[in-house]
Every structure is written in structure tokens, then in C-alpha cells.
Amino acid sequence: MLGDFLSILKLPKVTDEHLAELKRDLSREELLTVVKNLPRNITLSSDGLPSKFYHTYAEMWADKLIEVFTKAMTLGQLLQSMREATTVMLLKQDRDSGTLRSYRSLSMINRRVKDSDMDVALFALDIKKAVVTVD
Pairing state of beta strands 85-91 and 103-109? Predict the structure, then answer.
């Protein structure tokens, strides 16, 4: 049924040129542009680091992050730690706790270190050594 519906639509086709553009590696400039446009003064994930951290140290970790994204593209899937999330149900103010509609869900991406992410963790330790001082 869905196939019949899709067959009557005049959907645009991806050209070879567009496909090549989609398959190319992420550039450093593109990554830095994305980081520059991240919302400020919020924590983006459960790693606890505010977006200001990413803004401040983007130049330092950009190459390593590009490696992670390239690896994910090569594998054809996100790394395991990028696919995991923790979901919590928050009771809305002045609502009955016995009713499902009284809750809203909040999902946060987990930042656990797995085997494939170890190089990113080691790189983060290098950043920590550069940022944290005895003073």
C-alpha cells in the first residue's frame, strides 16, 4: 500500500553530483561553522559540558571529532555511545501523578566511553590537562 502511494509521487531523484557531495568527508570548516552556531549557555548532552566549552576549544578537538564522524560514516551507523540515550519522565506541575498524560519525557544522549570511543576519551584527557591547572 505504501509502495503504491510512493510510486505515484513525482519525487526528485538524487543526482550523481549530489550523491558525491553527500559521500564526501566533513570538512574542518563545516564542523567549526556548526560549533559556532550551537546555542550558547546550555549543556548540550549528559557529558555536563556547556556549549561554551565547545566554542572555546573547537579548534583544538575539531580534527578528532571529524575522525569520529568519518568512522561513523564508514561503518554506516553512529557509534554505539552516540545511539544510546537516557529517558526520564517528568511530572508536569500541578498534575495527577497517576495519569500518563501528566508526564513529559526528556531524553539525553549518553556519553559513555566504549571500545570504539577510547581514542576520543584519551583526547579529552589531553584537553583536560591543558585546561585544568594547579592554580
Answer: antiparallel
- 58-89 pLDDT, tens digit per residue, is 899 899 888 888 888 888 887 776 677 777 88
Q: In 3D, which of 24, 32, 38 has the Cα closest to residue 61?
A: 32
Q: Quick one: which of 81, 86, 70 has its CA closest to 116?
A: 81
Give mean pLDDT in consecutive 10-residue pieces for the chain, a chain of 135 residues.
Answer: 82 83 86 84 67 86 87 79 75 90 76 43 50 45
User: 126 near 64, Cβ under 8 Å?
Assistant: no
Output the nine-digit C-alpha cell for 133.
591547572
Q: What is the 3-state secondary structure (H, E, C) of 2-62?
A: HHHHHHHCCCCCCCHHHHHHHHCCCCHHHHHHHHHCCCCCCECCCCCCEHHHHHHHHHHHH
Cβ contacts of residue 102 below 8 Å, gap of 6+?
A: 91, 92, 95, 96
